[in-house]
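Protein in question passed on here:
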Amino acid sequence: MPLDQVDQTASNNLLPKSRDNEIVIQEVENEVLVYDLKTDKAHHLNKTMTEVWKNCDGKTSVRQLSEKLSKKLNEKIEGDFIWLALDELEKANLLEEKVDSKIFSKFSRRKVLFKYASIAVALPAVMSLITSTAAQAGSCLGNNANCTQNAQCCSGNCESEGFCN
């Protein structure tokens, strides 16, 4: 089967599904903040990525996602754009199942980025950061531990010599 037919078949058959377990979702205007309870990572999805992620319902194919996004953005969006978005979502662990990375590797990330930058479409982006757990955030230093400021010490007193008192 030729390469373009393989891509076409994958785009018609893959039904990506957004992860919905052990996450907390906060919507802010057209964007989403997703907090992963398993990894203590927060992920900010820009407007374009939010649209892709929200439509990953396990029933919508990559081709259908590109059609929906084309209508929403009023621009021609092709499968390569969706594959880029799915690759980013997978890296952030925001999909239920892994996407076949061999399919996306057939696309040049650089070409996809340049292609859509020229029509001023916001590229799909996930910005992630690791947060501290509640235990880490609440920990303090005991007596005689090295410190630099009072807030580090359980006693609230960092001596001028650099030790908790």
Summary: The chain has seven helices and four strands. The first strand starts at residue 23 and ends at 28.
